[in-house]
User: Fold this.
Amino acid sequence: MENILCVIPARSGSKEIKDKNIKIFVDRPLIAHTIEYAKSCKLITKTVISTDSRRYAAIAKKYGGEVPFLRPKDISQDISQDYDFIYHALINCEKLYDLKFHIIILLRPTSPLRPSNLIEKGLEMIQNDSNASSLKAVSVSEQHPYRHWEPKGDYIQGYEKNILEPYNIPRQKLPETFYSAGDLEIIRRETVMSGSVSGKKIIPLILKNNEVVDIDSDEDWRIAESKFKIQ
Assistant:
């Protein structure tokens, strides 16, 4: 039987929305919704919150979250990458609980509108594919990357450079592309131990665009609350 570790990241110091992870969303702190969602999945062995803040830790514990340690400040900066806190949580949880975790689930508090049974569906998909290194929830890109441009001196150039004028390809002939949703990521232990949060064989768990809200701005917050209230 595989041991499954769920990590909920809750770094302090958000800039766009101050203390976003603990701000009241509808009726309780934003992070509380993800803690509740994780605890509803009986397949998870342990769920921990990775935070650098004692205040955040106290709030997470109040709503049933487990915070066995604080995340070091040097991997809690604006420029810190996901790999750092995922590896930190994995290694420390294995020591603390004397368990080897075979699968790591990442649930971001900024996606509080997850569909029902999303974790169960994702686990079934990755456990049925022994070649997969990870799984990511994604949605179809609304703005195709072939239409993107980047600065070049005083001018701009197409972002995709391996295809001749990709921005002129008719919409109907554009290849399907996906955008990462923050709803769910599942990573095999060996992928993390190899130095990656995804690996090369990533299963897409495709969500409908109207199911995905990643809170990154005040406008996102308003949209998410409106959708949450009519669920």
